[in-house]
Amino acid sequence: MKKELILFLFAITFTLTTLSQISVKGKITSINNQSLEGASVYFNNTTIGTITDSKGYFELNAPNSNYKMIISYLGFKTKQVSIKSSNEFLTIKLEEDTTLLNEVVLSKTKYDENWKYNLARFKQSFLGRSKLAQECKILNEKDLHFDYNAKTNTLTAFAKEPLKIKHNGLGYLIIYDLVDFTIKDKQLFFSGYAQYKNLKKSVRKKWKQNRLDAYNGSQMHFLRSLIDKEIKQEGFVVNQFKRVLNPERPSEEKIKLAKELVKLYGNNIDFSRQIASPKTTLDSALVTLKKSRKPKYRNYLYKRNVLYKDMISFENELHFFNFKNYLMVIYTKEPEEENYVMGLFGKKREPLKVQTSNIVLLNGKSIIDKTGVLAPDSFFNEGYWAFEAFANMLPLDYQPLKN
Which of 21, 76, 200, 333 has its CA 20 to 30 A from that of 147? Predict the structure, then answer.
């Protein structure tokens, strides 16, 4: 299985938090005013949630914020509601989901070797390859269905029901409503709604330490430290670089032409021979193909120790992550996992004593909230943060205990 996924884009609904609490009350019904008992009501990517009673009523205590509340019920369309005040009693109507989930894909699903291969690829991409990823178990794997398009080299995943992920490493049962999952051109994109529930076992001490370890060096940790102007104290170093095409690598057009020419010669080609000075068009094509193995881009570091004012801007009392090109975020208080090194480099080097991640904003800037979350669909992660993936993510209401 290939392990070359280096870009990681994910979308989660973000919130603007404060410390005060509010009580959110309401009732969930169908369009026809039928009370929906047992509907899930929760704040996305948090441990804050409940279910409706026999008459469809619910009550939740939550931070006074612009949280996105998620309401889901089997057979009905999942709904998002913005919560801004506790004064209003909410009456929320869910619409029946009459659309069939990609019936073409579902009808041809066979739990054969191809399905197992795609499942393994899904788990490695979605959960990641970290030690914590190995502690995750998807309890309803057969609700996952896959569609692979060979022409576009795109893998898409669908789920008939929310995924139930038992995370023995962090001590959560995660109910994940998968909205989108796509791997294309070595880039991963997934989005969905997550509800975290604490597991009830006797290893809370282990979970407490694992949660702290997952938090340290994470993107959530970095963004919270940035908001608090404490990135240096928390162990982060930020550099800035730009990415340009590698002049030593041939253009895609030249590579394509070289491949077409080589095909004309069939199997009677010695690819191993050294060509110091090309004398034929075939020689030139072989040199082009060898050079095509070089990296497509080069990174040029042009600013070290980027300052707070060069990353954060303010508009209407809101924080915006705002910078040009790429940021290289180095966490100095933890080494790389061996799994990370094995995935990228095999046995070529020992794990470094620091963790390095790159981040690029897709739209120039992104709103950033105090929970340590960026606006959905607004950024790409590369490097260590991409490696950690979903298995290392914590709920937004997680707060590490300060010594």
Answer: 76
